[in-house]
Amino acid sequence: MSIRGDLRVGETLRGSLRKKSHSYTVMGRVVLKRRDQRSRRLTRWEQWRLIDDNSEELWLEINRDTNMVVLHEPVPIQPMIDPLALEVGQTLQLKVNGRPYSVEVKDVYRADIDHETGAVPHLTGAVTTTTCVELRVKGARKPLSSIVIDEHRRREREAYRITTLAPEQQSKIFGRHVSRPWWVPGVARRLGRWISSVGPGLRGGWKSPLFWLIPFLILMAILAWTDDDDFSPAEDGSVFRNRSVYGGGGGGVGK
Q1: Whole-number CA gyration radius for the chain
Q2: Which of 184, 182, 179, 185 has the alpha carbon at shortest distance from 230?
Q3: Most Cβ neighbours (<10 Å): which of 66, 181, 204, 211?
Q4: With 0-12 CB in 10 A as exposed, 13-18 as middle and 19+ as buried, what is 214?
């Protein structure tokens, strides 16, 4: 399976969010898929579960077509919403982050859980399908203008606000980019990380053993291109649910 997230379950990322330093542990990953009823096109998206140093849960959602990365941050809502009971166009009165708002249901759809890795707890136990809901918060500022609720990761009195992360924002929050292009095989990606870590050892120039080792490893990576089991460009994939909040496929902050 082709995975766009350049993350590994168990690794720790470090960066800064809203002017505060944080570390994040990658706990698990969910891959979801959905077939559009009109075009019959199959789309897939990834959701990565992270826990920060304050034991707060965050999610990263990655568009499998565009590599768009969306940060999902929990936000309290009252009363709690059942995604299965909502319809597109419906208007609700909710307290979001402690303030009353009128909230419109923008989209409701079902998706299949295609694959799951690591620690991803579900409120109602193991699931194979889920219902996803996107809500527009009328009158709220941009960070709260769109919130989402997914049945498979639903928490009591909680939704997710969404923020699209540009590459430079990913580097600031997590210390590096967290997605990779489809054309970068796993071997080359791991080699690039290793070269970055041994960079100081190259100061001896051509006399350094590393100077000659690196071209050899690059050659081996090229030869291994077709044998990389971490990558499959032919696999169909797309961002989650084609949301209008970011032009038809992804969002701002929240799921």
Answers
A1: 20
A2: 185
A3: 66
A4: middle
Whether residues 19 and 46 fall in one domain = yes
**Contact call for residues 155 and 148 (beta carbons, < 8 A):** no
Nearest to 60 by CA among 240, 248, 246, 247: 240
Can you give the pTM of this predicted structure?
0.71
pLDDT band, very low/low/confident/very high, at 105 (cuts 50, 70, 90)? very high
Q: Is the pLDDT of residue 30 over 90?
A: yes
Which residue blocks in the chain are alpha helix, DSSP H? Answer: 142-145, 167-174, 186-198, 209-223
Query: pLDDT above 90 covers what percent of the chain?
Result: 45
Say yes or no: 167 and 206 in one domain: no
Strand 12-17 relative to strand 91-96, pairing: unpaired
Residues 161 and 222 in one domain: no
Query: What token pair was written down for 144?
Result: 């709260």
Quick check: 26 and 175 in contact, CB under 8 A? no
What is the DSSP track for 142-173?
A: HHHHEEEEEGGG-BTTEEEEEEEE-HHHHHHH
Q: Is residue 153 part of a domain?
A: yes
User: How many whole angstroms separate alpha carbon 26 and alpha carbon 12?
Assistant: 6
| pLDDT at position 1 | 54
Q: Of 43-47, 67-71, 102-106, 197-201, give the lowest mean pLDDT range.
A: 197-201
Copy the structure tokens of residue 79: 């009363």
